Amino acid sequence: MQTKFQTLLSIFLFWMASMLSMEVVASEVRDIRVAQQDGITRLVFELSEKSTHRVFPLSNPDRVVVDISDAHLSNAVVNNLSALSSDVLMRVRYAKRNDGVRFVLDLAQAARAKSTELAANQTYGPRIMVELEYGEKKPATIVKSLANLSQEKRDIVIAIDPGHGGKDPGALGQYKVREKDIVLSIGKELARRINEVEGFKAVMTRSTDVFLKLRDRSRVAREANADLMISVHADAFTKPSARGASVWALSLSGKTSEMGRWLAQQENAADLVGGISLDDKDQLLAEVLLDMSMNSTIQMSLNIGQSVLGEMKNVAKLHKNTVQQAGFVVLKSPDIPSILVETGFVSNKTEAKNLSSRTYRVKLAAAIAEGVIDYYTKNAPEGTLVAWKQKKHSDYIYTVSKGDTLSKIARRNQVSLGVLRKANNLKNDVIWVGQKLVIPAG
Length: 442
Ligand SMILES: [Zn+2]
Known about the structure:
By secondary structure, the protein is an alpha/beta fold. It contains 14 helices and 18 strands.
């Protein structure tokens, strides 16, 4: 017979188990868009998961509160929240509230607020639309999207992957040179040089002497939304006479040189050092190989590789002056262009000596960085700061509405008061409703 204690204990354990299995999927507020049309300001809160919400007005001063349960904000939303405004919406503030988030919409005047839940469709996730209506009919003006704003000036991210590490020393060369040390040193210098350039950011798969599986290397790149992954190596070859730096991209055709096969074999064997075989990944690889987008990724990798070779030839003797292709597992990311730089052969006396010199490694890293930066400056991806700086941004005409002050307009449009005065030949800060102001391009 159960004692009272046993009964209580089993009830408690049951309760614990049900608490643990009750998984609450928190929603992320990914974007907030504001549109103004015909006297109505519409805010659309885009969520990753459906979430409950409530909306209520407060007066003195006029504001509307939007509570969303079990939610947090994406970085794009947090960083750009101050950019949201319309003629009635002065600004949006937020605070964490229980497990959710509370938005406070500060208004220029009282407005009727209503909200509608919109179900996910092919383009968007679940959304909450909040409409602020205040009667005045005005033409459509501004549509802003925080996610777009944030994407407009993102950094170009270069993932740097020094090969081997930890229990996998890589090639052991002449003069007791170890590949894992050489490539870590070159990788760190490469990252330093890339980070020095505005609009570029480097992430490293490893910055210490640790072992990483090949798949974990591309995972680092993917999680950082990398535009490019560069794997850095300094291998050994069977013939000590073999020398010269080379750049490799993935081959889909299986056609590869004797050296390509050898190098790929050496690199791909790295996972075996960690005690796992690549066999279980065959299915994934097969799918990856079927992915047609891979072809364009490879073409881009070849172009970037060529730009890198163009700079490296000033520093190192090249094995071949075109990008070569082989079946490296580490390069098999269908969506991220990837190159593998063989900085030289540590099995060759001259190159082992060169690579053991810090001055040589710094020069080599500088050349690789130059090749990458040159390529991405000429081919800046849409939405990056580098692309944004190259565009001619057009000015924008703003019509002054009730409640506006010059400083408020300047703040909202992220221009300085001085720049705004100068662009409009204003001698003082007096403005009137209906006046058209030039908001100069950033
Ligand atoms: Zn290697």
